[in-house]
């Protein structure tokens, strides 16, 4: 099937990322993920800090409540013998218990016990003796302690003067009812807020260190990315320079080989034919001088040889620059090439091309023609094929060439000496125009070559 004309039905070429863009994406994506993780982690750390503060406060309050309970247990155990002494009257027992609280039951530097009755009248206060005998319900902490003692539901937090410094500080109190006398015995602990703040400061320090570590990790990743970009850019430029030098070297070698082939064609073909023509003309000249009538046969042979020479010259000229390609375009030139190949080899060619006339540059057209010509030559000499599929499609941004045969195939990794020269020439021709060349073949599986060429339009656009 052969078609030409509009290419709007073709699928546009998928944009291919360069090595630099792939490396950048591989570097930037993890960096963005890392930044996202750090952001989420910082938010989580903030939430954890709040939860940690609440947990620490609750944990310390629970711990202090147990400690206060233990202190009250000790105090109650200390007054138990007095309360069980049958020799003392109730008044004597109460007096003895008050004396014990005022004089002996202390702990630490600022620890003491106080006693109120259920109506809020202070009975014992070693630190503030002026409270004794007075109703202190006007102090907010007193009603709270009385209620807590009767309900036994935790501790009471308040600010109170520390005996050793005279400064008001945070304190937690705990009280219990002394059942026989309906007294409320309580005590308290200072420095609770300081302990909470100290612990939270430690937690905050750990969180800050963690955040600082993550920030350093992010900065290190950014620096690494910058260095990677510079390295990739340098490496790509170096590879591009090396590749350009190789292409130039291969192009010069290709020109030299083509010139040598042209020289061989001239020397071994055309030159020998011209020598033969000259020999026949000289022979006819001698025969004519002698009056020998056979000079006509010599001239006939010379003319026949001259016709052969003209055909050889045309063939060489066609191989250098096909006239059909210059005059009629790529599609007609390819059709002529296919027809000659089928007549010469008997191999069937199934072809399909979709080419927009007059939009291909001369460079691309010649390149496609030469690649197909070289491929046909390889198939004729080596493939032992019976059928060839040729496809040339013009897409919006590139020209796609696919050629495959059903021949015996080969292992590209183990080519015989001299067989890979034509394939090398095809690859070099395609890459010289910035295209991509691919070869796929295996024994008994045929051969397929594909070439992708960027479109160079008549006005130089790419």
Write the layout of secondary structure elements.
Layout (H helix, E strand, L loop, with lengths): L18 H66 L5 H14 L9 E5 L4 E3 L16 H11 L4 E6 L6 E11 L4 E8 L1 H99 L4 H26 L2 H6 L1 H16 L2 E7 L7 H22 L3 E8 L3 E8 L15 H12 L3 E6 L5 E8 L8
Parallel strand pairs: 6-7
Antiparallel strand pairs: 1-2, 1-5, 3-4, 4-5, 7-8, 8-10, 9-10
Helix pairs in contact: 1-2, 1-4, 4-5, 4-9, 7-8, 8-9
Keywords: 4Fe-4S, Cell membrane, Cytoplasm, Iron, Iron-sulfur, Kinase, Membrane, Metal-binding, Transferase, Transmembrane, Transmembrane helix, Two-component regulatory system
Enzyme class: transferase
Protein name: Oxygen sensor histidine kinase NreB
What labels describe this entry?
Heat Shock Protein 90; cytoplasm; 15% strand; Sig_transdc_His_kin-like_C; five-stranded mixed beta sheet; 59% helix; disordered C terminus; 462 residues; disordered N terminus; rod-shaped; alpha+beta; Oxygen sensor histidine kinase NreB; Beta-Lactamase; single chain
